[in-house]
């Protein structure tokens, strides 16, 4: 890929015929009005897709921006979401059936569409802009340009009607044009082509494209901005205006001096002064500011259904800004440079912020699988997220990451070779090169292009092969870039020195081995040079893709003796053209010299076979296919995300939950501990020492104390932590504590009791040996010893290595110490836990609720007639422990999946449920009926004290002086009487859950609990008593 938006030739397009098209709007729309895009889903089999007429192409004023940003964002209701999913699924079916994106209905000849290359949309009245065509192809690096008026005559006014195409907003740092201001308000526009422009030339048949970016010039007056906006609108472009300081710090500073070197493995500049650190901070602030400006302009152009395609490292924060403005916007981001390995990327300050911003996009694309793998690895190692084969997953949200190798438009080069101008130039070159083999290099004069290494390899070849000294020559085109930067000036001097030395040593009066040009070539000259040479040398030290190799292959097909491609393995193109090219390591000068010798001496048959492989790839993997594949994948990703969203729990309705809480008489609040109400240390700076001593979140202590003081509210902390840990944190609260997944319960007076007895723990010592073995071989992992379980935790270790070790550990466990043991192995996100069969939070919850109710009547001779009429269960539980949600659920999660049969539950239910429990679970029609299942612990003594694991025997209570024991549980009936309105199950930070609702962070939990505490009746009574009396 040509970084920096520059190529060694100009991009000249041919004007397409002008077409007409109806844009369906309101009947009352006047000439200046803008009809709106509408969607109507008449049925599952019919989709009417109606794009709007035009949107403005002028930039927003500050007032307009404020108005747009202040517009409230509407959260789609479930019905709206469902309809949207149906529409997206239908669109995907149409694309796959060959309809692509032409989903429009009728067309109307009243509005004009100028269908130039790229299908760009203008914004002047009812006319839409087009790409203009120059009569003569020119170099994008030359001084030649054309005035805006010169292109007006190239418009073809044919009235051919086309169906409406999907709108594509292409957002890049630079527009495909460079603007120079003339006298007054006139502008000189030059088509400054780059690899991105070249790649998107042929997508006009699929997309209606609009370009958004910086025009390369600073315009300070409003009149100049308006005139430039109008001129660019005719070319389908929308400008983003940046001031000089922003350009200097954002583009020249953070983009070119920080991100670009880092992504090409050059490394960050060494700071020797504190001012350099401050400068880096200001550059990043300018980078964020520039991305916000881009987002505002994109938002002003956006219409419902548009696809926004962000490009390159200049706009890594843009997806986040766009999603903030409109969460439903379809956003893709593509990187045209390499993405470094995580070990290189992690040296970047503010590394996490950029990764998080990019991850808000729906689809992230790279040129090669290696770059995509590096990105996923960086997200895993730095952010601690889950890497999957599909992409990166964060709390249930999947960001798709994939490789989309870019291509070129080969027909453009093939057709150019048929022109008389190119044929004439080819004859002249062949006459000049007669009797010699010619090697070609076309590069920007850049540090990553490996030009010095290429010259040194050629020098070694001439030194080792004296018979070739006047029979081979190298033509090197080196397009100057960033000539004002000291490093590039030094590189230029180094290249000139090597060229002079080789020519002086091996040249003669009539011949020099190297023809070096410090300039670009016109397009027809470059095509002729491609077609006339025998070997192409691409020796990039690190390159995103490098399309020179593609262009060379496209221009070799007409020859009888095809050329040979020598390609650096560090160029992205090596993964695509490696089958037909000679791959080399540009750092190995000897290897490159041998490759040059092999290419020059290669037989015609091998040349043909290699070229056939490469030419087939170049002509099938075109730029159009690249763009089509990316956008099609983006649509599929959005459809899959919407389908996943339908199965995810909604956010907790705080107001209705608070109202149900107030209207109830006996309340039960069950909280998890870790990742629910604890203070957190932000990743990736997770401190093992600090986290091991974490306590309650500071904001929840007071409100939790308020809830515990309410006589009608019982609060339970249900955790996998040890008893002493919970005692240390909650010792001062009037609260029930259930430690080790509910196996130990502490009542309000501080007395602990087991909820399950006589657990078989014979396996513990052998499992401990396995855990210690892997702990010693996995740095920063540790073993947590509990009374009823063992946990090996690797959350502080390298995650990828930890997952590998966890898989190996499971194999050791199942084939060794637990092969015949009655245990469960619970694999958490970053842990492996071994516990006895039947130990879970759901298994213990019935006993916990029983003890709470019995404590209210410890010595009564009558059956307690107390039922909880409001229950909230809130936590971040392992999947195995989520049966606690099902215990309370009045809609009965068991029956909802229709898994009850023969007294057993096939899914999400412990095998210890009795037949009676499942019979009761079948009562489902009455939503407010009390449906309660009972789970009795395994491996507990029966009434005679004998150990029995086959029957539902129940252990006695350990509360002295109590009338009722847990063995008398049946006579107490149902302990909970809740309806769907008075039962709340909520997962924290875990969207793949059986809970009814969802909260994202601990801070949201704290805010919700605080609202309950403020509404607590006891709190309100205390406030009323504190008011002075009025006599």
TrEMBL record:
Ranges of biased composition (kind: Polar residues): 10-20, 29-60
EC class: transferase
Catalytic activity field: D-glucose 6-phosphate + UDP-alpha-D-glucose = alpha,alpha-trehalose 6-phosphate + UDP + H(+)
Gene Ontology MF terms: alpha,alpha-trehalose-phosphate synthase (UDP-forming) activity
Keywords noted in UniProt: Glycosyltransferase, Transferase
Recorded coiled-coil stretches: none
Region (Disordered): 1-84, 934-956
EC numbers on record: 2.4.1.15
UniProt-listed InterPro entries: Glyco_trans_20, HAD-like_sf, HAD_sf, Trehalose_OtsA, Trehalose_PPase
Top-rank lineage group of the source organism: Eukaryota
Gene3D superfamilies to which the protein is assigned, alphabetical: Glycogen Phosphorylase B, HAD superfamily/HAD-like, Trehalose-6-phosphate phosphatase related protein, domain 2
GO biological process terms, semicolon-separated: trehalose biosynthetic process
Biased segments, Low complexity type: 71-82, 946-956
NCBIfam families found in the cross-reference section: PRK14501.1, T6PP, trehalose_OtsA
Similarity section: In the C-terminal section; belongs to the trehalose phosphatase family.
Name assigned to this protein: alpha,alpha-trehalose-phosphate synthase (UDP-forming)
Organism: Physcomitrium patens
Gene behind the chain: LOC112283102
């Amino acid at each position: 890929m040509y970084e920096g938006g520059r190529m060694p030739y100009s991009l000249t397009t041919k004007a397409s015929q002008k077409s007409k098209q109806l844009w369906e709007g309101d009947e009352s729309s006047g000439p200046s009005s803008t009809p709106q895009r509408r969607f109507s889903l008449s049925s599952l089999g019919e989709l009417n897709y109606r794009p709007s007429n035009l949107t403005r192409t002028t930039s927003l004023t500050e007032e307009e921006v404020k108005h747009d940003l202040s517009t409230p964002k509407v959260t789609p209701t479930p019905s709206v979401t469902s309809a949207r999913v149906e529409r997206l699924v239908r669109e995907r079916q149409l694309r796959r059936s060959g309809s692509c994106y032409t989903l429009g209905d009728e067309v109307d000849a009243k509005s004009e569409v100028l269908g130039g290359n790229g299908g760009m949309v203008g914004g002047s009245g009812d006319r839409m802009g087009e790409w203009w065509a120059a009569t003569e192809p020119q170099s994008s690096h030359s001084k030649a340009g054309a005035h805006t008026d010169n292109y007006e005559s190239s418009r073809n006014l044919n009235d051919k009607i086309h169906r409406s195409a999907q709108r594509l907003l292409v957002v890049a740092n630079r527009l495909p044009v460079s603007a120079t201001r003339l006298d007054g308000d006139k502008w000189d526009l030059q088509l400054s082509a780059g690899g991105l422009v070249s790649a998107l030339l042929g997508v006009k048949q699929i997309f209606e494209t609009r370009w958004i970016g910086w025009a390369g010039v600073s315009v300070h007056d409003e009149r100049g901005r308006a005139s430039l906006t109008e001129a660019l609108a005719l070319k389908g472009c929308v400008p983003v205006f940046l001031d000089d300081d922003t350009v200097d710090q954002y583009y020249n500073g953070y983009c070119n001096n920080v991100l670009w070197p880092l992504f090409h493995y050059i490394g960050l500049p060494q700071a020797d002064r504190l001012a350099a650190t401050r400068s880096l901070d200001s550059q990043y602030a300018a980078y964020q500011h520039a991305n916000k400006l881009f987002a505002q302009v994109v938002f002003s152009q956006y219409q419902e259904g548009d696809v926004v395609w962000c490009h390159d490292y200049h706009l890594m924060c843009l997806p986040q800004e766009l999603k903030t403005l409109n969460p439903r916007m379809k956003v893709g981001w593509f990187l045209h440079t390499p993405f470094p390995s995580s070990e290189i990327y992690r040296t970047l300050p503010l590394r996490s912020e950029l990764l998080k911003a990019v991850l808000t996009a729906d689809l992230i694309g790279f040129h090669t699988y290696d770059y995509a793998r590096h990105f996923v690895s960086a997200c895993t190692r730095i952010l601690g997220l889950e890497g999957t084969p599909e992409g990166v997953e964060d709390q249930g949200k999947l960001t798709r990451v994939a490789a989309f190798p870019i291509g070129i438009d080969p027909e453009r080069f093939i057709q150019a070779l048929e022109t008389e101008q190119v044929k004439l130039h080819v004859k002249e070159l062949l006459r000049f090169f007669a009797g010699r083999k010619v090697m070609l290099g076309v590069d920007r004069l850049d540090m990553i292009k490996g030009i010095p290494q290429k010259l040194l390899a050629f020098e070694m070849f001439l030194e080792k092969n004296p018979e070739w000294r006047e029979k081979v020559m190298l033509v090197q085109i080196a397009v100057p870039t960033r000539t004002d930067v000291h490093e590039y000036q030094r590189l230029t001097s180094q290249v000139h020195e090597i060229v002079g030395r080789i020519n002086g040593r091996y040249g003669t009066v009539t011949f020099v081995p190297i023809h070096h040009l410090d300039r670009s070539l016109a397009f027809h000259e470059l095509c002729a040079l491609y077609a006339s040479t025998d070997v192409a040398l691409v020796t990039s030290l690190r390159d995103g893709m490098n399309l020179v190799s593609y262009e060379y292959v496209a221009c070799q097909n007409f020859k009888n003796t095809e050329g040979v491609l020598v390609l650096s393995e560090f160029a992205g193109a090596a993964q695509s053209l490696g089958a037909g090219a000679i791959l080399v390591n540009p750092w190995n000068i000897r290897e490159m010299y041998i490759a040059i010798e092999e290419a020059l001496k290669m037989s015609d048959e091998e040349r043909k076979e290699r070229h056939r492989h490469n030419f087939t790839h170049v002509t099938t993997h075109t730029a159009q296919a690249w763009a089509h594949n990316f956008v099609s994948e983006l649509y599929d990703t959005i459809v899959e995300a919407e389908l996943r969203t339908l199965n995810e729990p909604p956010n907790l309705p705080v107001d209705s939950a608070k109202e149900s809480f107030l209207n109830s008489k006996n309340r039960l609040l069950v909280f998890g501990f870790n990742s629910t109400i604890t203070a957190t240390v932000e990743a990736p700076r997770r401190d093992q020492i600090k986290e091991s001593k974490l306590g309650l979140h500071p904001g929840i202590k007071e409100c939790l104390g308020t809830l515990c003081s309410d006589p009608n509210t019982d609060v339970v902390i249900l955790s996998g932590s040890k008893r002493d840990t919970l005692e240390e944190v909650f010792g001062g609260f009037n609260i029930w504590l259930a430690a080790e997944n509910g196996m130990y319960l502490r009542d309000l007076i501080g007395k602990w009791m087991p909820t399950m007895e006589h657990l078989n723990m014979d396996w513990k010592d052998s499992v401990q040996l396995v855990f210690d073995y892997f702990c010693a071989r996995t740095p920063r992992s540790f073993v947590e010893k509990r009374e009823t379980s063992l946990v090996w935790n690797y959350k502080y270790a390298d995650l990828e290595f930890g997952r590998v070790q966890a898989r190996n550990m499971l194999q050791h466990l199942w084939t060794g110490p637990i092969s015949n043991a009655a245990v469960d192995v619970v694999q958490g996100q970053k842990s492996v836990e071994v516990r006895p069969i039947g130990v879970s939070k759901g298994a213990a919850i019935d006993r916990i609720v029983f003890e709470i109710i019995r404590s209210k009547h410890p010595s009564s001779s009558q059956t307690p007639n107390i039922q909880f009429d409001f229950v909230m269960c809130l936590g971040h539980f392992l999947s195995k422990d989520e049966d606690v949600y099902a215990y309370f659920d009045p809609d009965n999660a068991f029956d909802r999946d229709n898994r009850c049969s023969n007294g057993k539950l096939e899914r999400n239910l412990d095998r210890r449920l009795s037949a009676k429990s499942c019979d009761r679970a079948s009562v489902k029609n009455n939503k407010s009926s009390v449906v309660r299942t009972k789970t009795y612990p395994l491996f507990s003594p029966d009434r005679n004290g004998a150990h029995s694991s086959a029957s539902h025997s129940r252990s006695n209570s350990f509360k002295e002086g109590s009338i009722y024991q847990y063995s008398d549980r049946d006579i107490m009936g149902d302990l909970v009487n809740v309806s769907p309105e008075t039962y709340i199950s909520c997962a924290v930070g875990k969207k793949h859950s059986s809970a009814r609702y969802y909260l994202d962070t601990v801070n949201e939990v704290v805010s919700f609990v605080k609202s309950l505490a403020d509404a607590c009746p006891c709190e309100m009574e205390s406030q009323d008593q504190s008011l002075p009396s009025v006599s």
